[in-house]
Design brief:
This protein has 13 helices and nine strands. The chain is an alpha/beta fold. A five-stranded parallel sheet has the order 2-1-3-4-5, sandwiched between helices. Strands 7-6-8-9 form a four-stranded parallel sheet, with helices on both faces. Helix 3 packs antiparallel against helix 10. The longest helix has 22 residues. The chain is globular and about 60 Å long.
Length: about 350
């Protein structure tokens, strides 16, 4: 049932998320790079905002699948100065009109690098069709890029496997439609929202899962219209935690303004990371008075773990938006900013 605050029915988008993977694979079914380029040792993903999320997930998966492949994410104009001569460039823009990504595409063409385009339409699609560049046309369902991760991820990984860079993962990806449980995760997200309301969320994870911490932060920003921050273990133990040591006694507010969420995989995180997580939690509660919630990263396999956690971040940020009386879908400030650049 559509909520009166949720005018564009983001709840249905989240509920339908597991269906995206099959459509993304189908969209990229016949897309690949030329046979002569199968010896790639680096992939450069050019994309902004939600369009860069599939690359963040691929970097996470590289740790689990042991891919002997360098993955670089470029979030700006042009391309990095130093690129492997055996690099493949992905230009990903959900709308097809992201100016930074179009700049990257044009620079890759100038450097005569192999490029794959991924978009629903827009100028990037026009350029790929003009240049006969391999292109994945993502289904244009009208949803926001941050909500289209299933389409984008499955399309990108399909192109990479089609190009014989990694093994085919179609079966594992298609199982996500069965393994992901949006309704169960919705209830968990609702409960977590009640603890976060009125606070600024900070999300921590291990280095292995730091992309997930970043995704939570992005969803709080774009869905809840809330400031949020993220960091990862063990790095945060060497700096960030010290910055919170005075919070409990701070004279400027009568209760902590932050709420800590720690993402933890008790089976796959390094034992010393688990020890760091527990020690950090104890110290922050004692010295700073923070409320801390642990979110277990759970699932039958690594793909289910990652995308279940993603769904939980969507639900939590969605219900936080409703608590604030905010429609979670529009990104009005981003759109206003784009107009100022014209």
């Amino acid at each position: 049932m559509k909520n009166k605050i949720d005018k564009q029915n983001m709840r249905k988008v989240i509920m339908d998320f597991p269906k995206q993977f099959a459509d993304g694979l189908a969209a990229a079914k016949d897309v690949m790079v030329q046979q002569a380029h199968h010896d790639f040792n680096q992939i450069i993903f050019c994309g902004m905002g939600g369009s860069a999320l599939p690359a963040e997930i691929l970097k996470t998966l590289r740790n689990f699948y042991k891919w002997p492949l360098a993955i670089k994410i470029h979030k700006s104009y042009g391309l990095p100065v130093r690129i492997s001569p055996k690099a493949l460039v992905f230009a990903i823009s959900y709308s097809g009109n992201t100016e930074e990504t179009i700049s990257s595409y044009e620079e890759a063409k100038k450097r005569n690098l192999p490029v794959i385009g991924v978009a629903t339409g827009g100028k990037l699609t026009e350029l790929c069709e003009r240049d006969k560049t391999p292109l994945v046309k993502i289904p244009d369902t009208g949803i926001q890029p941050r909500s289209a991760l299933g389409y984008l991820f499955s399309a990108v990984i399909k192109v990479i496997s089609n190009s014989k860079i990694i093994k085919d993962l179609d079966k594992e990806i298609l199982l996500l439609n069965k393994n992901l449980k949006p309704k169960i995760l919705e209830n968990q997200g609702k409960k977590l929202t009640q603890k976060i309301k009125g606070r600024i969320p900070i999300i921590y994870a291990s280095d292995k899962y730091k992309a997930l911490a970043q995704i939570w932060k992005i969803n709080f920003n774009e869905n809840s219209k809330s400031p949020a921050f993220w960091n990862y273990f063990p790095e945060l133990n060497h700096n960030e935690m010290e910055g919170m040591s005075h919070e409990k006694e701070c004279e400027y507010h009568d209760k902590p303004i932050f709420h800590i969420i720690i993402l933890k995989d008790k089976n796959l995180d390094h034992p010393r990371i688990i020890k760091r997580i527990n020690a950090t939690s104890d110290l922050l509660k004692e010295k700073s008075g923070f409320d801390i919630d642990f979110v277990d990263i759970e699932g039958k396999d690594v793909l289910t773990k990652i995308f279940s956690n993603y769904l939980l971040s969507q639900w939590t940020s969605y219900y936080l938006a409703l608590e604030y009386g905010i429609d979670p879908t529009p990104v009005k400030m981003v759109e206003e900013f784009k107009k100022k650049l014209k």
